[in-house]
Write a structure and sequence with these properties.
Length: about 400
């Protein structure tokens, strides 16, 4: 088998890259370890920066998002009982689009089907070879047979646990990590969202977030212990704890119902440098992880895809190799800024086990500064809606 770009991983990064390259006439094959149903059952944040919205348009998959997505011009920040709004539109002229990541993935799969693009599911033992030569290839096992895929380039879009990052020799690779001492317990419920906009809330009992998927589907999170299991939390316990962590005016409006999904996610910041090795390029969670505060996971994956897509189109159309050579440097420059923003929002809004009274006063002062200063709000807003590519 031969293709121009072998894409390892059929999550949002791999699928979006494949679809964008397809639009430019560049041939790709996506190799995915899991089934399509499995990939489409993962529930993840749904806040899209304008840059990602534009990539969806360029990939020809924006129709349903434009119809069913919600434009958010601002967000609410709460500290205890006090709440204020950061107006993205007034401060930056920009907004975010609330549209579930599962829907983004579904739209990409459907577009691939329509275009006859190749996605191979249930591939095991996927391994890239000869990445430091001009003729790399990928081997994998599927339906009981070993296959070989020859290519010009390999895109490692295989998530945090995938094999591609490990192909960068240890003597070259540097990994930077911060693990946070808590998790997020998330609940999905078929109830109307408590507010039209998201509420990020710091409280004496820990962080809470009120988010949504649509007019009758809400997504809520509370900070929890890493040792907790979702089974430790009955629905009633979850709703009671959420009520205690958001301002009273929101509590009064909160509609609760049975959870249709409940899970715990750990919080981590992680970056791998460099993001390329020979003819392999890492995109998305394969190269970096952010804590979910600020919703940058999907958006940082899209940022990488944007740079790699442009670099590959320049290579194939004009023989221009500048973008390819500087991919890692260019992608990382933006990634580190998104890492900083996600780390800052996490630090601002959570209770940390080792925090003393001074640290809590510092958080209060940081939030009060954000409430009172247009400069501080502009800094938050421009990061939240997404820094330019
Ligand atoms: N072979 C083939 N595919 C693999 C392998 C492997 N050995 N290992 C992992 N994969 C697949 C996974 O099954 C998954 O479908 O790679 C895909 C990676 O997808 P994601 O983990 O969703 O990562 P990415 O596409 O970078 O998307 C980033 O997803 O995790 C969230 O918060 C993150 O929103 C962000 C987005
Ligand atoms: C979500 O809706 O799942 C969500 C929204 C915003 C975040 C994190 C998660 O910062």
């Amino acid at each position: 088998m031969r293709t121009q770009v072998a894409i390892i991983g059929g999550g949002p990064a791999g699928l979006l890259l494949s679809q964008l390259l397809h639009q430019a006439g560049i041939d790709t094959v996506v190799l995915e370890r899991r089934s399509r149903d499995y990939v489409l059952s993962r529930i993840r944040a749904g806040v899209l920066e304008t840059g990602l919205v534009e990539l969806m348009q360029a990939a020809g998959v924006s129709e349903r998002m434009e119809r069913d997505g919600f434009v958010h011009d601002g967000t609410l920040i709460a500290n205890g009982n006090e709440q204020f709004r950061v107006d993205f539109k007034a401060l930056t002229g920009n907004h975010v689009m609330v549209y579930g990541q599962t829907e983004v993935t579904r739209d990409l799969y459907e577009a691939r089907d329509a275009a006859g693009c190749v996605t191979l599911h249930d591939c095991s033992g996927v391994k890239p070879h000869d990445l430091d030569t001009d003729a790399p290839y990928v081997t994998f096992l599927r339906e009981g047979a070993v296959h070989r895929l020859d290519c010009d380039f390999v895109a490692g879009c295989d998530g945090f646990h995938g094999p591609c990052r490990q192909e960068i020799p240890q003597s070259v690779r540097r990994e930077f990590e911060k693990v946070y001492p808590f998790g997020w317990l998330g609940v999905l419920s078929e109830t109307p969202p408590v507010d039209d906009e998201l509420i990020y809330s710091n409280s004496g009992r820990g962080f809470a977030l009120c988010s949504m998927r649509n007019a009758n589907l809400s997504r809520y999170y509370i900070q929890c212990q890493l040792s907790d299991s979702p089974d430790d939390w009955t629905d009633d316990m979850f709703w009671d704890e959420l009520r205690r962590r958001i301002p009273e005016e929101a509590t009064a409006r909160l509609e609760t119902g049975p959870s249709i999904e409940k899970s715990i996610a750990p919080l981590r910041s992680f970056v791998c440098e460099p993001m390329q090795w020979g003819r392999m390029f890492l995109c998305g969670d394969a190269a970096h992880i952010v804590p979910p505060t600020g919703a940058k996971g999907l958006n940082t994956a899209a940022s990488d895809v944007n740079y790699l897509w442009r670099a590959l189109v320049a290579w194939y159309s004009d023989g221009e190799r500048g973008g390819i050579d500087t991919y890692s440097e260019t992608a990382l420059a933006r990634i580190w800024k998104a890492e900083r923003f996600s780390w800052w929002m996490t630090t601002l809004l959570h209770r940390f086990p080792e925090q003393n009274d001074f640290d809590i006063r510092m958080q209060d002062a940081d939030i009060a500064y954000l409430r009172d200063s247009t400069a501080a709000q502009t800094a938050m807003a421009e990061n939240y809606v997404g820094l330019p590519y």
